[in-house]
Design a protein that fits this description.
The complex is a heterodimer of chains A (232) and B (283). Chain A has helices at 2-16, 20-53, 59-69, 74-85, 100-124, 128-136, 141-151, 153-168, 172-178, 188-197, 201-227. By secondary structure, chain A is an all-alpha fold. The longest helix of chain A has 34 residues, at 20-53. The mean pLDDT of chain A is 92. Chain B is globular, with a radius of gyration of 24 Å. The chains are: A mainly alpha (232), B alpha/beta (283). At the A-B interface, helix 10 of A face helix 2, strand 2 and helix 8 of B.
């Protein structure tokens, strides 16, 4: 209990005094997880929508593949990415292991199936009669898609929240491909692990509180978008 | 018109030249070509805070950006063996020697030492206080007291296994012998929670001391010396290795000023040195 309280005080102190390391780590966290979420949204929503609206041979298998991907363990993704990006690995010539780029790649792999899976469910659960109605009103293909996604917006935003939540909280992949390099690839989760091994529990608690606060702010913003009344 | 055009052209040319030269001018001649340097090292040098002091000094002096990857010595050496790191700072002389012999690493230099200690709960149920390391381990095994091992092929783990071997005990699989699979700091916390014994380097113990109920029970025995070496991964064998950078880092670690910093490190906070500089000495 004591540690939690001291952690809270420490978190406030670090935030108020704009501690350089902590600000740096927080910004890096936003940069890495934000970019990864953005990319996974750009890839995942089209995949989910396509799977929801088309019928093709092997669709069932693809859907189960996406749903399986939603539960990909970050450590496994981290290990696979690490093996690919090592100097003498298949993608070693890029030389990006232990960089924020490598972390973004790993986190994108984690988030994309989550976004795709949730948006697949969201689009598919739009009332089929509504789909027919939109088409009957003479909507063009792009208009049809926009209206459909708009109708599915609650689920689509939930998919973005879930994708973001998945990557900002993971530590295994970031640790492995980022290496937790101070001032470069250290994010809030990996910094917390390190401070625990250093025995600095107050600082670790403070970092956790900042992580929770950051996640809350971003998710609250998305929830606001999701829940506000539909504009005419 | 032509005059104007020529003027324009000249201006653009000057502009481009300045732009092209700017990074070179700003950086000066000191700036290394390949800035990134991967240092693969043991958790103890990071968890104790030593590298947080040394690395910024090195970066400022040389312009390299050090990517410190803190893993167990086993993984650090494996990375060196595969050319995945540029420079290694580890503490398992026997395992390091294999890499030196195979030519995977060069410029193998002694940096510093401290010692391993056997810690345990203050009431010491197995009665190991004051015993030599081998006798202490025998007593723990006889009493079947909980022993928390790193179990991660790190330098400390290797040392621990060598003591079990000397004690002629095969602890793996026994119920009282638990492998944490984590770094030293986390393992000490586990040992403290479980009121068990463990083998730790002194630096991590002192850094963790405030959080744990563990006391040093056995120390000072010659077999408990913990020796750190720094070495370059062989760039002739692995062309992707940053040869200039790793050479600079080895030189930095054995330089007199750095050695002084190593000796001073921890004196303010713990009232004693955590590491003892050894560069240039013979073991």
């Amino acid at each position: 209990m004591n540690v939690l309280f001291e952690g809270l005080i420490e978190a406030l102190r670090l935030l108020v005094t704009l501690d350089r390391d902590v600000i740096n780590i927080t910004l890096r966290t936003i940069q890495v997880s934000g970019t990864a979420t953005l990319i996974s949204v750009l890839i995942g929503i089209p995949i989910g929508t396509t799977l929801a609206l088309t019928r093709f041979f092997g669709r069932g298998f693809t859907v189960s593949l996406v749903n399986f991907g939603m539960g990909l363990p970050p450590v496994v993704v981290g290990l696979a990415t690490w093996l690919c990006l090592t100097r003498y690995g298949p993608l070693g010539f890029f030389g990006i292991l232990y960089s924020p780029t490598a972390m973004i790649i790993a986190q994108t792999i984690i988030a994309t199936p989550i976004v795709a899976g949730f948006s697949l469910a969201a689009v598919q659960s739009v009332n089929p009669k509504l789909r027919l109605q939109i088409l009957a009103l003479g909507a063009t293909r792009p208009q049809y898609l926009v209206l459909l996604l708009w109708e599915a917006r609650l689920g689509i935003l939930a998919s973005i929240i879930a994708g973001f939540g998945g990557v900002i909280s993971e530590v295994g992949a970031s640790m492995m491909v980022g290496g937790n390099v101070r001032g470069y690839t250290r994010v809030l989760t990996t910094a917390t692990v390190l401070e625990v091994s250093k025995g600095r529990f107050e600082l670790a608690t403070a970092l956790s509180i900042i992580l929770l606060f950051l996640t809350f702010c971003i998710v609250a913003g998305l929830s606001y978008l999701q829940q506000r009344r539909r504009q005419p | 018109m032509t005059m104007k055009r020529t003027l324009c052209f000249t201006m653009v040319l000057i502009g481009l030249t300045v732009l092209a030269a700017a990074p070179v001018l700003a950086a000066g001649s000191q700036e290394p070509k390949n800035k990134d340097l991967i240092l693969s090292t043991t958790t103890s040098t990071v968890d104790s805070g030593l590298l947080d002091v040394l690395i910024p000094v090195f970066e400022k002096k040389t312009g390299y950006r050090v990517k410190t990857i803190s893993v167990g010595t086993g993984q650090a050496l494996a990375m060196g063996e595969r050319g995945e790191a540029d420079v290694l700072l580890t503490h398992a002389p026997a395992a390091e020697k294999k890499l030196v012999d195979s030519g995977a690493v060069v410029n193998y230099q002694l940096v510093m030492h401290n010692d391993f200690v056997i810690t345990g709960p203050p009431d010491d149920p197995a009665g190991v206080k004051g015993k030599s390391s081998v006798d202490a381990f025998k007593a723990i095994a006889a009493k079947e007291a909980i022993f928390v091992s790193r179990g991660d092929d790190s330098g400390t783990h290797k040392k621990e296994l060598s003591i079990w071997k000397k004690a002629e005990i095969e602890p793996s699989g026994a119920k009282w012998y638990q492998e944490s699979g984590q770094g030293m700091g986390a393992t000490l916390l586990m040992a403290s929670e479980k009121q068990g014994y463990t083998l730790t380097d002194r630096a991590t113990y002192l850094a963790q001391k405030a959080n744990i109920k563990q006391e040093i029970l056995s120390e000072g025995d010659k077999g408990l010396l913990n020796i750190y070496h720094v070495m370059e991964v062989n760039a002739e064998k692995f062309p992707k290795v940053n040869a200039a950078g790793s050479k600079a880092f080895v030189e930095f670690m054995v330089a007199p000023e750095t050695q002084k910093m190593i000796g001073e490190f921890g004196k303010n906070k713990f009232g004693q040195s955590l590491f003892f500089p050894d560069a240039g000495k013979q073991l």
